């Protein structure tokens, strides 16, 4: 992303700072949309067909399930790696971006909710854990709500089961230490030394999803799945409320109209104006968004409104102090 957009990116992971690495910025079905490639329209979908001609790491329109890797550089210089969400495309994201940025492991996991695009990669967590045929390793802490825990216990009983049943042989599976968090802004928790405040938001009127506020030197809010902000949550992250964010990372699904469980661009831009962060990056996009074309529009919007906003892209790395 260009410096004139007001949002700086960097490839340098040896600068002794923390960094946010956007390992996924796409919707649940991810981009390219499979149907655009197996039954192409006439003319073909411009955004998806780029996946056939450009390698993913050179194609900002190639979007895996939304997920953020926080490379947290502590005061002693040690790095801790905190992953928010582990979706259907987790393995692909590891192969592409963990290698590029030399991420050696995941130290803790935080879940926003239990939908498929946030949790269905959990089986593959074993791929980033030390090999142990007897599963005799330190489990990775994973923070989630009670509701998400109950759902995951049904989806992945073998990841939740504490002890082997009589006669059951050891199978190598991801080792996870499940830690229940509250759906409340006032109840922070600490993952790998970094404090997180849950941000309950409505994700469809019958469902609560969590965003997270973190960082002391930079105040960052990450909200991947939202259709409406409860006033208490909005107050907690607003310039006119508890204080201005340095960076708001926010859901936007389609370019026009509205959707029952996600913000689309009109609602996302309205929320940015109300919350008034120093800058904002958008995530969760479908193939309706063309990275370069739509970021040009957003540069103009940013000039008008005085808040730099851009679409994020898979592989975007932003160094900062947390
Ligand atoms: Zn498409
Ligand atoms: Zn969802």
TrEMBL record:
Metallo-beta-lactamase domain sequence ranges: 80-284
A Pfam family that the UniProt record links to this protein: Lactamase_B_2
SUPFAM superfamilies hit by this protein: Metallo-hydrolase/oxidoreductase
Protein's name according to its UniProt entry: Metallo-beta-lactamase domain-containing protein
Classification of source organism: Eukaryota, Viridiplantae, Streptophyta, Embryophyta, Tracheophyta
């Amino acid at each position: 992303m260009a410096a004139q957009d007001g949002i700086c990116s960097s490839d340098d992971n040896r600068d002794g700072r923390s960094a946010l690495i956007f390992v996924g910025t796409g919707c649940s079905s991810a981009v390219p949309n499979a149907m655009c490639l197996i039954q192409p329209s006439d003319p073909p979908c411009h955004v998806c067909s780029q996946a056939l001609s450009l390698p993913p790491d050179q194609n900002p329109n190639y979007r895996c399930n939304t997920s953020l890797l926080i490379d947290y550089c502590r005061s002693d210089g040690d790095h801790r790696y905190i992953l928010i969400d582990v979706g259907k495309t987790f393995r692909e994201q590891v192969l592409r971006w963990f290698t590029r940025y030399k991420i050696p492991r995941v130290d803790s996991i935080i879940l926003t909710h239990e939908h498929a695009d946030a949790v269905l990669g959990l089986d593959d967590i074993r791929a980033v854990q030390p090999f142990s045929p007897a599963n005799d390793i330190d489990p990775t802490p994973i923070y989630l709500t009670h509701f998400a825990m109950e759902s995951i216990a049904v989806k992945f009983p073998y990841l939740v089961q504490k002890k082997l049943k009589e006669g059951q042989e050891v199978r190598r599976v991801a080792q996870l230490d499940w830690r229940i968090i509250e759906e409340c802004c006032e109840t922070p928790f600490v993952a790998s030394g970094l404090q997180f405040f849950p941000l309950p938001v409505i994700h469809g009127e019958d469902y609560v999803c969590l965003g997270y506020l973190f960082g002391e030197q930079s105040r960052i809010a990450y909200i991947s799945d939202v259709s409406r902000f409860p006033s208490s949550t909005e107050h907690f992250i607003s310039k006119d409320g508890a204080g201005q964010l340095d960076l708001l990372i926010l859901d936007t699904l389609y370019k026009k109209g509205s959707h029952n469980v996600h913000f689309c661009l009109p609602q996302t831009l309205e929320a940015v104006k109300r919350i008034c962060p120093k800058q904002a990056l958008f995530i969760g996009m479908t193939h309706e968004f063309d990275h370069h074309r739509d970021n040009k529009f957003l540069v103009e919007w940013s000039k008008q409104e005085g808040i730099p906003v851009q679409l994020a892209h898979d592989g975007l790395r932003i160094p900062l102090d947390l």
